[in-house]
Design brief:
Elements: E1 9-10, E2 22-26, H1 33-37, E3 48-52, E4 56-58, E5 61-63, H2 78-91, E6 99-104, H3 106-117, E7 124-128, H4 140-146, E8 149-155, H5 163-176, E9 178-184, H6 193-205
């Protein structure tokens, strides 16, 4: 379970990355690194953007963990933890002033899990159309005190994310983060232009 450095799409060449913040984009299930990178023109210009490919080949694309034998809303956090550990190991090879994570759907689950494993490692996390995994993670107690800024965005017409996972996250996130929640009317399992504007404003602030 490793991040492929050769599959990462960067917004800036290596010579232009030093001394800058980093925003890491983490795509959803069955997608690829080019998907969320399409959002990068709408993100703040100062940070470097890196869009990573999930480690597992599945369902015609790439996945952070397999859904072949389990539902997306599973309470078991083991797979999310393994994927988050792969992201952390890759980040340990880089040097940036700060790191923010932006994940969509399955990528949002892993982004939040990475925060739970390393509560002092991120300036902020954006979780779109996703949720917090179940169980207890190593950094949960520290997060209660640290209150890392988290943006949680979802649509009223999202039929992919199970209601019980949303309910769990509605309880967990306010207790473990400085939370900004946005719910978008008539938005399904996706990202709208209005939401992208809200994300950009959030990242500029944090």
């Amino acid at each position: 379970m490793d991040i492929d450095p050769g599959a990462v799409i960067w917004s800036a060449p290596e010579r232009e990355r030093a001394g800058r913040p980093l925003i890491v984009l983490m795509h959803g299930y069955g997608s690829h690194e080019g998907d969320l990178f399409q959002l990068s023109p709408g993100l703040p210009l100062g940070p470097v953007v890196a869009s990573v490919r999930a480690p597992l080949s599945e369902n015609g694309g790439w996945a952070w963990f397999s859904l072949a034998d389990r539902a997306l809303g599973s309470q078991d956090a083991t797979d999310a933890t393994r994927a988050a550990e792969a992201v952390l190991a890759w980040l340990d090879t880089l040097e940036f002033t700060t790191v923010a994570l932006l994940g969509f759907s399955q990528g949002a689950i892993v982004a939040l899990q990475a925060l739970r494993l390393r509560p002092d490692g991120f300036s902020s996390v954006v979780a779109l159309s996703g949720f917090a995994a179940g169980g207890v993670a190593a950094g949960d107690v520290a997060l209660e005190a640290r209150r890392v800024p988290v943006f949680w965005g979802r649509g009223t017409l999202d039929r992919i994310i199970p209601a019980e996972a949303v309910a769990r996250t509605e309880t967990w996130l306010p207790e473990h983060s400085d939370l900004t929640t946005r719910i978008y009317e008539d938005l399904g399992h996706g990202v709208s232009g209005v939401e992208l504007g809200d994300i950009s404003a959030f990242l500029r602030a944090h």
